[in-house]
Amino acid sequence: MIDFFRANQLYIVLAIVLLIWAGIVAYLIALDRKVRKLEQSLRKD
Amino acid sequence: MLKHMATSFQSVAAVLSKDVQSELRVRYAINALVMFILTSVSTILFALRYERPTPTLFAGLYWVVVFFSAMSGLSRAFVGEEERGTSLTLRLIATPAAIYAGKLVANTILTLLLASAVTVLYLLTFPGFSVQSYDIFVVTVLLGAVGIAAATTILAAMIAKAQARGALFPVLSFPVLIPLFMTVLDATDKALSGDDFGEAFGDFQVLAGYAMVMIAGSALLFAEVWND
Amino acid sequence: MKIVRAAAITLVTLVLVAGIAIPMTASPKGWLEFPTIRGLEQNARNIFFHVPIAWTTLVAFLVSMFYAVRYLQTKRAEYDIRSVASASLGFMFCFLATVTGALWARFNWGSFWNWDPRETSIFILLLIYGAYFTLRSALESEETRARLSAVYAVVAGLTAPFFLFLMPRLMGGLHPGSKDDAGGNGPVLDFKMSPNMLTLFFIGLIAFNLLFVWMLDIRVRVGMLEDYRTRHKD
User: Fold this and answer.
1) Distance, in angstroms, between B122 CA and closest chain C CA?
2) In principle, which of A33, B10, B95, C117 could form an S-S bond with C173, CB 3.0–4.6 Å?
């Protein structure tokens, strides 16, 4: 595994970009959940 | 102006002497802290036995005990006032600045006492712990104690208003104190390995700057925490 | 904000594509080839992603501290909402900077974590964010929570110059600009890149900061609505 990454360093770059993307997506999902909660509490009345 | 300064100095002294007196009357904190230090130092002794740690490791072992005993000692600075309901009286008789200054001095003295107790215990019980440059060591402990008290006094006032006080204090203090610790560890390492006084001068500048920034900032912000 | 959004999306896309697609050669000809940096090779591309993320962390921290000060001055709930929003984004970026940095370090310096000064300072920031949110969860009254967490943000911010600028200077480390890096220009600013890499790097800085501004705006709007909701319960 480590040898593979050493030989193909571009995949590390890919992994780093994917990590950043995953972080932003996770944040968006949390935000989405916040908005949904708001919507539900508004719909109640 | 002079008269104003004199009265505020008096109220600082009053807050300080009130703290010292109520502490001496109960001795709750002091007894607990002495036991805390004895327990932690003997645990390290059991673990080390005949090992001879390097100065770097000794510097770490020294400040770990000082940090955690200071954490349990200093967290009580304002919690007691809230629990006994004396914070309201204190608010009436003294300005926030005077209370902050009084508590800061009290905390500095307490931290210095803790550090001296740990130093004496280490010197007596660890054969390998020998301070080569006492000048560096004394200045480091002095500046370190002032820095710890400077950074944590306002945090102690904050946790008095929160839930889970005991657990919260180290959590809040540790990130703020890391710059101080890294510098203090470096300087203690130098003191234990016998460097010249001049070599630790950069560390002392950082420590003094840290203490000054934290005291100035806390003095400005303290009223925000203290007044409801 | 529409312009910010358009610019953020365009520039981040541009940096992602250009940062990966532009080939690297030993003797670059023209604008569309990067020089190979010895010891880094393809990993040099991480400069366009990891470094802007780390910078955005710092920007978010400063923005959060700025709004904390504004809150203490005015006591308007709006500033508390802005301060928390920025802190929550800063926490995310801080986490990303730590993880991507650790991954890169594993393949360039040999291990995930080396306690180099820059790694130490991002670790301290992570702890500060953790402590900040722990403090907020331990305070029940809204007003006290806003006030005390603002004070903590400022107190923590006061220590920032020490771990960001002073300690990297005092200690040796692996990042560019550490004490024993002879050719370094300083702890933060050190650019030994070719002009086209430098340009893309700066576009990356701007792109991720614009992305931060856009995300902050959304987060603030949600926070404002939540605040409005709790104030008008029925």
Assistant:
1) 28
2) C117
Quote the CA–CA distance of B180 and B209 in Å, as a whole number: 10
Cross-chain Cβ contact C139/B162 below 8 Å: yes
Q: Is C221 on the interface with A (CB under 8 A)?
A: no
Q: Distance between alpha carbon C218 and the CA centroid of its chain, in Å?
A: 18
Contact B147, B210 (CB under 8 A): yes
Confidence (pTM): 0.87
Over residues B48-90, the pLDDT tens digits come to 877 788 888 999 999 999 999 998 888 877 877 777 777 777 7
Query: What is the distance between the alpha carbons of residues A36 and A30, in angstroms, rounded to a whole number?
Result: 10
Distance of CA C89 to the CA centre of its chain: 9
Euclidean distance between CA atoms C82 and C94, whole angstroms = 18
Kindly report the number of other CB atoms within 10 A of residue C52's CB atom: 27
Residues of chain C neighbouring B149 (CB-CB closer than 8 A): none
Residue of B nearest to C129 (CA): B175
Q: Which of C50, C104, C222 is closest, CB to CB, to A31?
A: C222
Q: C159, B214: Cβ pair inside 8 Å? A: yes
Residue B198 to residues B133, B136, C52, C232, Cα–Cα distance (Å): 11, 9, 39, 64
What does the block give as tokens for B148?
Answer: 């710890």
| d(C-alpha B205, C-alpha B136), whole Å | 13
* CA distance linking residue B63 with residue B185, whole number of Å: 7
Backbone angles phi and psi of B23, in degrees to 5: -70, -45
Tell whether B164 is within 8 A of chain C (Cβ). Answer: yes
Of B99-113, B165-179, C160-174, where does mean pLDDT reach its minimum? Answer: C160-174
Each residue of C2-46: pLDDT tens digit? Answer: 898 899 999 989 888 888 888 887 777 777 777 777 667 777 888
Residue C134 has its nearest CB partner, among B168, B203, B210, at B168
User: Regarding predicted confidence, which is higher, C215 or C23?
Assistant: C215
Residue C178: predicted pLDDT: 59
Q: Of the candidates C204, C219, C123, which has an alpha carbon nearest to the alpha carbon of residue A24?
A: C219
The values of phi and psi at residue C35, to 5°, are -75, 150
Are residues B128 and B58 in contact, defined by beta-carbon separation less than 8 angstroms?
A: yes
